[in-house]
Design a protein that fits this description.
Strand 8, helix 9 and strand 9 form a beta-alpha-beta unit. The chain has two domains: 167 residues, Rossmann fold (3-Layer(aba) Sandwich); 127 residues, Rossmann fold, CATH 3.40.50. The strands form two sheets. The protein has a seven-stranded mixed sheet, sandwiched between helices. A five-stranded mixed sheet has the order 7-9-8-11-12, sandwiched between helices. It contains 13 helices and twelve strands. By secondary structure, the protein is of the alpha/beta class.
């Protein structure tokens, strides 16, 4: 079953939606600058540059230097947004982000495109499958991962609503529309998309749509699932997760990321310390992916709706009183 059976296809990817909103926000907030590393046409930050050329700077293919420059600007009191591909931001530039931005808690926001294997046909060099783990571990960093264009647009204002660094994980290609224009996405929040009594399914970003499809298929088989979009990964909505697993007694986490050190590890630890339940964590299993179509890749690497359904069926069987 596909999420397409219930949801309208999106016309723009989250990277474009975020940059569109950045232009709109730039008209209200005239203080911040935008820096990018020679891929403004891909991240769509060039749109900001067209409207505000005096506030937009392409520093070339030099992510480390871009973020070091952002740190210098922000240290003098001017907010900065840096844009690029997730794999380069969280690999090449991580020292500057950790030591020069997060340590002094500077006001630098990050547009990180091509999260996980949504980069698909671009191959392993462009697939950021370790980015959530890396960014979430750095003190003072906040992490957002919107699933649709509305959420991505709202994450611009959310990012600028606080002082300090914020990492926004965005996607390469458009998937589906999920939220209405009146939705808001504050830090530490989540969205309950489906309700059921038998299993909790938590996801974020693109795999939210696979979780929805899985829940619909499970419902047809008589298994009710809570589906939580954990769009705010750091800080995350501990209360919503615990409330749900106390009700359902089982948890599946599915994410487009390495399973190790991902959100699944965080929520497994939460449940072990506060409310132990049968658990399954779906993600890449200590492997690189490969170049291919997005649907083929999420199927091959075990994070499609089919795999979520199987995991949910298995954990519900291991609950007390299960089959």
């Amino acid at each position: 079953m596909s999420a397409a059976t219930a949801l309208k296809p999106a016309t723009v990817p989250t990277r474009r939606a975020f940059s569109d909103a950045l232009v709109e926000y730039g008209r209200k907030n005239t203080e911040f600058w935008v820096l990018e590393s020679d891929i403004g046409t891909s991240t769509y930050t060039y749109l900001f540059g067209e409207e505000f050329p005096e506030r937009y700077f392409n520093l070339g293919i030099a992510e480390m230097g871009t973020f070091a420059t952002a740190a210098g600007i922000a240290s003098n009191g001017r907010p900065v947004l840096c844009a690029g591909y997730g794999v380069f931001i969280t690999m090449r530039a991580v020292e500057a982000i950790r030591s020069f931005i997060c340590y002094p808690n500077l006001n630098v926001k990050i547009l990180s495109s091509h999260g996980g294997i949504t980069a698909a046909i671009d191959g392993v060099t462009h697939q950021a499958t370790e980015d959530i783990g890396t960014m979430s571990q750095i003190p003072n960093m906040r992490v957002l991962c919107p699933s649709d264009p509305v959420a991505a647009r709202r994450c611009v204002e959310t990012s600028f609503s606080v002082e300090g660094p914020v990492f926004n994980r965005l996607m390469r290609d458009p998937l589906y529309e999920l939220y209405g224009e009146d939705e808001r996405f504050p830090f530490g929040g989540s969205k309950l998309l489906r309700e059921g009594d038998d299993v909790t399914i938590v996801s974020y970003g693109d795999i939210v749509f696979e979780a929805i499809a899985a829940a619909d298929e499970l419902a047809a088989a008589g298994i009710g699932a809570d589906v939580i979009d954990l769009y705010s990964i750091k800080p995350y909505d501990r209360e919503a997760v615990i409330r749900s697993v106390r009700k359902t007694g089982a948890l599946v986490v599915a994410e487009n990321h390495q399973a190790k050190n991902g959100v699944g590890y965080e929520l497994a630890h939460l449940c072990l310390t506060e409310h132990p339940v049968p658990f399954a964590g779906l993600g890449l299993l200590d492997t690189f992916a490969e170049s291919g179509s997005y649907p083929q890749l999420i199927e091959k690497y075990g994070i499609s709706a089919r795999h979520i359904v199987e995991a949910a069926q298995n954990v519900t069987k291991t609950k007390p009183g299960g089959e």
